[in-house]
Amino acid sequence: MSELSDEQRRCMLRQLSEAPGVPGYEGSVADCLVQWLDGIAEPTYDGLGSVIFRREGSSASPRIMLAGHMDEIGFMVRRVTDDGFIKFQTLGGWWDQVLLGQRVVVKTREGDLPGVIGSKPPHILPPDERKKLVKTEDMFIDVGAADREAAEKKLGIRIGDPIIPHSPFTEMGDPDFLMGKAWDDRIGCALFADLLLRLADDEHPNTVYGVGTVQEEVGLRGANTSVELVRPDVGIALEVSIAGDVPGVSDQESTDELGSGPSLLFYDASMIPNLKLRDLVIDVAEDNGIPLQSSVMPRGGTDAGKMHTHGSGVPGVVLGVPTRYIHAHAGILSVSDYLKTLDLLTALIRALDEDTVQSLRRH
Q: What is the pTM of this model?
């Protein structure tokens, strides 16, 4: 297999989106990537579970690391109450307001267990309490258990079991728009897998490492360990960007919009991009007629934050696919944006030869 058809690509996106993979439990996502890259690149793993795919071009160097994190935000069983409800630990950055009433799946030793996030009903609250946001610690997950014994013995629930947001992959009225969970950051994983499939029939003057990292949402941990094995000369994080084309978002907050192409991140709390690499991305986009959006993220970071500080320093940059409603049960993105990001990434890889990469380090 090399270049994916539209049907194959949508199948891969569906599988990656629907795969369970909260921080620390990313094995199903890694298995999905291994399946799609079978015969294209052999997988190796770091000690935390990040999966590394190597594709050598016409030269063993420079080494280009493309990181997409496999984990999604989710939950973990913290304890089971006497009356059989689950109190949970959040994994990653959740906004309490988006949680209530959402369906989840508890992954137990007995199998998948459906549940719903609940709280005290508003109908019995006094008026002053109804106006207050419900805090995560006051929420619970109802799995239909009669009591703690039934939950633990019959249903197989254990402390530490992962809990996955339930949000089936859906093509919207306009099939260019896809709704699903975990686009942050399964879309980054899809990008490097799609690229490696393209490179099977394409010359490139470097060696490319597609890395599915673990535990990004809880501290960029997988990037910190996998970069030790790859030892890259250039690090590129493949991510979502925060789409601002929804009511109430100002241009000061976000100018990214669906349908207008990939986004180049100019700043986040973990990294300021290498200026020459940043300019190279802009030039490559212009030369290939690819529209390029720009974004700034004052809070939060990406795997590039760990890659660019490896060793004596690595030129790094972040490319994002604009996505609405990240860090919620369901997000929306555009296939056309994804394809333009893939085209930009392909052209950029072709441009990163030894001389070009060496020039990125000279000031």
A: 0.94
